[in-house]
Amino acid sequence: MISSVNAPPDDVDGFGIAVLGDLSTLSWRAVASLNLSHYLVRYTPATAGATWGSAAVLLPHVTSTSAQVPTRPGTYLIKAVSTQGVESLAAALIVSTVEGATRNVVDVITEDPAWTGHHDGTYAAGGALRLDSVDTLADWSTLGAVMSIALGINGIRPSGIYTSETVLDLGEVYTSRVTPEIIAYGDNLANTIGSWARLGDVESLSGAGSTLWGAAMEIRTTNDDPEADPVWSEWRQAATGDMVARAYRTRLVLTSGAPSITPVVSRARLLVDMPDRIVSGNDLAVPIEGLRVEFAPPYKRLTGLSVSAQGMATGDYYELTDKGEGGFSIAFRDASGAAVARTFDYVAAGYGRAA
């Protein structure tokens, strides 16, 4: 039974999605393989041409046959993973075109198309990121030893890392939702028309199956001021979810399973957003000296505040002072300007939650 333990689990089937407002439920039929450990779900905003290698990790370890995710358009892909860490051969996928609730995108780390960060075994061409070749022109002893100008003598590097120079600083520690977005495909530089026996035998015009290349975004975070000797976390694969941090950095890890194949990343972005948040209070008593109302925790941004006064006499009015993301102060006065005690309700709207 050793071979069955090391074999890939069966492919997932029955993969579907049910949308209900801001949440969507992904569901699938259980894989019957005895060596099944869990399921891995990936996501890409692309609604056409999505591949396993170009999608970012959404849910790294699911042991049930359903999971809830935020509603948004794009392609969801799933594979079964064995106890030995072997993935099923083919990914099941489902495309959704349903838009979820409008998010409050606080900031975005965008690398394409300039790719101005640090390249270690990668380079940018035509607005896309690629793996570099193992050798350079100076390494070529004779031109006859060169497979092609693009591949050189030893072909494409097996891996490379592109590190962004951008540090996304929220200014304070907040609970935010991070969403990695990657659009990529594999390019087989040896896949020329002259190498095709028959057109019908060609699986992909790029000649690079999704199992032969990979492009993954990694992030690290800090709760410190990034300009003042911060302590950063270890790099880890980026996945959609809520995180508590002040600042974020990103990098891309590109891999190749063959000397002639490179990932081609045309888009790489990290979105940091925060959901709408409503704070309210009812029948709050305001003494003559006034009242301070604190939002706990403070907002990242306050977008609106509504006050409804109660028990007002003719000529009464209220004053709002020190209104901001942390709260507001309120005091009531009568027609002569003298301070009076009253009650009120309020509703505050905004987004963000300081940690």
Element layout with pairings:
Layout: H1 2-6, E1 16-20, E2 23-27, E3 36-44, E4 56-62, E5 66-70, E6 74-82, E7 92-96, E8 104-110, E9 118-120, E10 122-125, E11 128-131, E12 159-163, E13 168-188, E14 213-222, E15 236-237, E16 241-256, E17 261-274, E18 276-286, E19 291-294, E20 301-310, E21 317-324, E22 327-333, E23 339-340, E24 342-351
Antiparallel strand pairs: 1-2, 2-5, 3-4, 3-6, 6-7, 8-17, 9-12, 10-11, 11-17, 12-16, 13-16, 13-17, 14-15, 14-16, 18-24, 19-22, 20-24, 21-22, 22-23
Report what the structure shows.
The chain is elongated and about 95 Å long. The model is unreliable at 193-203 (pLDDT under 50). The protein is built from one helix and 24 strands. With 355 residues, it is mainly beta. The chain folds into three domains: 2-100, Immunoglobulins (Immunoglobulin-like), CATH 2.60.40; 105-274, Jelly Rolls; 276-351, Immunoglobulin-like.
pLDDT averaged over residues:
87
CATH fold category name of the largest domain: Jelly Rolls
**Which stretches of 5+ consecutive residues score pLDDT under 50?**
193-203
Using only C-alpha atoms, the radius of gyration works out to: 27 Å
Total number of helical segments? 1
The main sheet comes to:
10 strands, antiparallel
Strand composition percent: over 45%
Distance between the termini: 51 Å
Number of strands: 24
Which class do the helix and strand fractions yield? mainly beta
Which CATH architecture of the largest domain would you pick? Sandwich
Domain tally: 3
